[in-house]
Amino acid sequence: MPAAYEADRRPEAHLEPLAVGQALPRMPLFLTTDLSVWTPLEETDAAAYSGLPTVIKDVLERRAPPETEPIAAEPERV
After folding, report:
1. Tens digit of pLDDT for each residue in 18-37?
2. Is the residue at 77 inside a domain?
3. Checking DSSP bridges between strand 12-15 and strand 26-30, what pairing results, if any?
4. DSSP code per residue over 9-72
5. How far apart are CA 37 and CA 8, in angstroms?
6. pTM of the model
C-alpha cells in the first residue's frame, strides 16, 4: 500500500489501497508542511526497473536462479 507522510505537529498519512496488478498511483511527496509535489510512482518504478541489468531482471522475474560465486579464501599472510 503506497503511503505518503506529512510531518507536522500532528503527523498525517495519505494511504492508497491497491489490488495486485493495479498500477501505482500518483502520491504527494511532502517537501515542507505546506508544500508537496505529486510523484508519478508507476512511471518512476518503470523507469528504475528498465535500468536494471538483464541478469537482475531474470532473477526478479524467476527466469533464472541467482548466480552465486564461491567465496575465495583469503590468502595466507606470511
Report:
1. 999 899 999 998 888 788 89
2. no
3. unpaired
4. SS-EEEE----TTPPPPEEEEESSSS-EEEEEHHHHHHHHHHTS-HHHHHHHTTSSPPP--PPP
5. 17
6. 0.60
Q: What tens digit of pLDDT does each residue of 36-77 get?
A: 899 999 999 999 999 999 988 988 888 877 666 665 666 677
Lookup result for grid cell 518504478: 45
| Cell digits of residue 13 | 498519512
Structural domains of the chain, count: 1
Range of the domain at 53: 1-7+23-65
Amino acid symbol at 3: A
Comparing C-alpha atoms, which of 60, 27, 59, 62 is closest to residue 42? 27
